[in-house]
Amino acid sequence: MSPVASLVAVHEELHRVFAQFRELVLVGDGPHAAAVLAVYQALTADHAAAEEALLVPLLDDAARWPAELYTGQHAKLLAAIDRTAAAVAGLTAGAPGWRARALAVLDVAAPLHHLAEHHHLAEEQDLLPLIGEREPARLVEVAARFWATHAAHRATLDAATAALG
Ligand SMILES: [Fe+2]
Ligand SMILES: [Fe+2]
Asked: Tens digit of pLDDT for each residue in 89-148?
């Protein structure tokens, strides 16, 4: 796998974890949905910090977009995760009105979904290929850090997968 592809795989895994969160909301499993969203939050925060430490400082005039685009999107992503976490708290299948409540959570999560997709696309179109040409080892390091953090949360993700059946 190329260094750039290793980061695309990281983005795909973030997308998968977020999809699992939405599926848990759909079935009204608030506790597992909240736990998976907390993992998504930890993975996103750690990944953003790694990119800001190792990749973003290497951007220069050759880049299509400035560093502030990426750091700004990271801040927006984390704020949107906080709003989504507040919305999902207390969701319980079978409680009165739970389906409407689940739909409301998905509505709050929709902008986060789009923001994450937009952000990953921006990185894959400019930041990653640019760093891949100059310092590919940094991409490998960012990917390795992601999977180390991911491994620390594996049990939570596995429990959620088991809950979905
Ligand atoms: Fe990022
Ligand atoms: Fe990224």
From this structure: 999 999 999 999 999 999 999 999 999 999 999 999 999 999 999 999 999 999 999 999
- Residue 92: phi and psi, rounded to 5, are -140, 120
Q: How far is the CA of 16 from the centre of ligand 2 (A)?
A: 14
How far, in Å, from the CA of 95 to the mean position of ligand 1? 37
**Does 88 reside within a domain?**
yes
Q: Is residue 165 part of a domain?
A: no
165 alpha carbon – ligand 2 mean position (Å):
30
**Ligand 2 center–CA 101 separation, angstroms:** 31
Q: Which residue range forms the structural domain that includes residue 98?
A: 3-159
Q: How much is the pTM?
A: 0.97
Ligand 1 center–CA 87 separation, angstroms = 24
